[in-house]
Amino acid sequence: MFDPGFLWGAATSSYQIEGAVAEDGRGPSIWDTFAATPGAIQGGDTGAVAADHYHRFPGDVALMAGLGLRGYRFSLAWPRIQPTGSGAVNQRGLDFYRRLTDTLLDQGIQPWPTLYHWDLPQPLEDRGGWPARDTAERFAEYAALVHEALGDRVTHWTTLNEPWCSAFLGYATGRHAPGRRDPAAAVRAAHHLLLGHGLAAETIRGDDSHVGITLNLTHVTPVGTEPADLDAARRIDGMQNRLFLDPLLRGAYPDDVLADLREVTGFGHVHDGDLKRIGASLDHLGVNYYAPMLVGGSSTPTQSAYVGSPLVRVADGGRPRTAMGWEIDERGLLELLLRLKDDYPAVPLYITENGAAFDDVVEHDGVHDAHRVAYLDGHLRSCAQAIGHGVPLKGYFVWSLLDNFEWSFGYGPRFGIVHVDYATQHRTPKDSARWYAEVIRRGGL
Ligand code: FCB
Fold first, then answer.
1. Which pLDDT tens digit goes with each residue over 107-148?
2. Whole-prediction pTM value?
3. What is the 122 CA–ligand 1 centroid distance (Å)?
4. Known catalytic residue: 226?
5. CA-to-CA dists, residue 296 to 164, 242, 264, 292, angstroms
6. Closest ligand 1 atom, CA of 161?
């Protein structure tokens, strides 16, 4: 069961909701550039206006207070704070986050900032992006600036959101900004993201500053017991989970994953001392979970985000799916949480994202999103069971507070518990928002 201090929250990210991309001195990010590339985003959508949260944040915080949220996970746009990714602070950009955190605190909502949710300043990409070691150093500098400004009102910091996506969708498949297709660069990016996290943690951590990172983890099972299927599951678990968990919580890359990746690149970019820093960096771990993965061996090579493992296929588990086509299976979350407890040193865990897109219908009396309620209810039941088994789970943030810009899918998929009419920017809490408010009020299901 959930204890009274359990942190009930909701999450968003800067580029997905803020809009105002050219205001108050913000510089361009890789997502502005990518969204302007023909064919990169469905419908040619961009984050230029998004949910206009930059202008509407007081109303949005009032909405959160109305729902009884105890925590709000948001991200800071690096190019608002350092428009070119290095050098002096743009105070007007930082002021936005000062006002936001103050407004949250006034309402008794804990600000839970993420320093990087994918919007790298474009000038840093032009100098090599995450495949370049220098970006890790720049990130630590930026983290120190933000910590200096907000450290008196923020206690829990998240450095990066889902470095797997930044590295492998950004630099291997090209589905995300900056849209590069260079598997070796993606492997270097993964390391420099972890290093940037480690360096940032060193500058931030202190008595009142706890540091975490958010990973997109999943529960992987093989379709059968053939050696090729077992090997596929080992590889995908390696790339999706252990490539990040092991350095962070054990201070070493897993040998089998290094061996798989050696087909793509050497590891000269990993310097002495890097893993020691990365391995000593966490006070808590953020887990984003959406769906499990069922995988098997394949005889046809495919290029995917799982670089170095071309003979793997993702199979159909036969379960109902969300509007993203992601299979719904809350048991995967329970298995994942139990596995974290069994395989890694104990560290407080937070679900920093969990939620679902469905084809919501706006009716005259609201948005009756029963599918989303069922999804959230099922996954929260898994959380409760995990806690019952001794998993140190301390909080849960639903993805997402608001409908928003879903990256390369544009505005089609709606993940919000609050509906956004993009033509008027009118917000309508869905049934799921009312249901979640009641869960929070009762302190559980
Ligand atoms: C995660 C991202 C988040 C959102 C959800 C649906 O991978 O962190 O921004 O797009 O997926």
1. 999 999 999 999 999 999 999 999 999 999 999 999 999 999
2. 0.98
3. 21
4. no
5. 21, 18, 21, 14
6. 8
The answer to whether 353 touches 11, Cβ cutoff 8 Å, is yes
Q: Is the CB of 405 under 6 A from ligand 1?
A: no
CB 292 within 8 A of CB 327: yes
Low-confidence ranges of the chain (pLDDT < 70): none
Angstrom distance (rounded) from CA 109 to CA 66: 11
In the chain, domain spans: 7-442
Q: How far is the CA of 228 from the centre of ligand 1 (A)?
A: 31
| Cα-to-centroid distance, 272 and ligand 1 (Å) | 33
Full DSSP string of 10-28: EE--HHHH---TTSTTPPP
pLDDT at 1: 86
Bridge partner list, 418:
402, 429
pLDDT digits (tens, 9 = 90+) for 218-276: 999 999 999 999 999 999 999 999 999 999 999 999 999 999 999 999 999 999 999 99
E strand or H helix that includes residue 71: strand 71-75
Per-residue pLDDT, 111 = 98
- Residues whose CB is less than 8 angstroms from the CB of residue 403 and which lie 6 or more positions away in sequence, other chains included: 51, 411, 414, 415, 416, 418, 419, 420
Q: Which of 117, 96, 94, 141 is nearest to 29 (CA)?
A: 117
Q: Which of 16, 158, 351, 406 to mutate to test the pocket of ligand 1 (most atoms within 8 A of CB)?
A: 406
Query: CA torsion 339→342→346→349, rounded to 10°?
Result: 20
**Per-residue exposure over 36-74, b if at least 16 CB sit within 10 Å of its own CB, e if not:** eeeebbeeebbbebbbbbbebbeebbebbbebebbbbbb
> Are 349 and 287 within 8 A, CB to CB?
yes
Give 420's DSSP letter: E
Q: What is the CATH number of domain 7-442?
A: 3.20.20.80
CA-closest residue to ligand 1 atom 10: 406
Task: Based on the residue annotation, tell me whether 330 is a catalytic residue of this protein.
Answer: no
